[in-house]
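Below is how a single chain appears once it has passed through the pipeline. First comes the sequence as given, then the structure the pipeline wrote out for it. We keep one example in the README because the format questions we get most often are answered faster by looking than by reading.
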Amino acid sequence: MSILQNIFKKLENKYLAILFSTAALIVANYYKPNLWYFLFGILLAYLISDGIKILLIGGGNGIFQIPLINTKTKPEGHAYLWFTLFIILGTLGSIWISNWIYDNFIKNLTSWQAVVIPNLLIAILVFIDLKATFYNRK
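Resulting structure:
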C-alpha cells in the first residue's frame, strides 16, 4: 500500500478527517491568506445558505412545503419558483452573514486563536451538516 493510499485509508476515521481538513485550512491560512479567505467564505456561505433552506423549506419524499406559509404540498411548478427564490435569498443572506461573522468575530481573534478557532469550527460545522443531511435521516 502506498503512502497516499495509507493516508486515504486513515482518513476514513471521521475525527482524523476533521483534523485533516482543519490542518489544510490552517496551512492555507498561513501560506495563502487570500485562498483561505476564499475557501472559508465558500464553506461558511454554504452552511448558512443550507441552514436558511432548512428553516424555510419542508417536505421530502416527493412533497415540497413552505412551513412559514402553510403545510400544504406545493405543485412542482410552485415548488420550483419557491426553491429558486430561496436559493437567491439563502445566497444573499449567507454573503451578508458571512461578512458580518468575519468582521465581528474572526477579525477580532488574535495569534493562534485567529488560526485555529475559525478553521476547527468550520470543519466541525461541515461535519454536523454532513451528519444531519445524510446520516441522521429517518
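Residues 4 and 138 are 36 Å apart (CA to CA).

See the next section for the split statistics.
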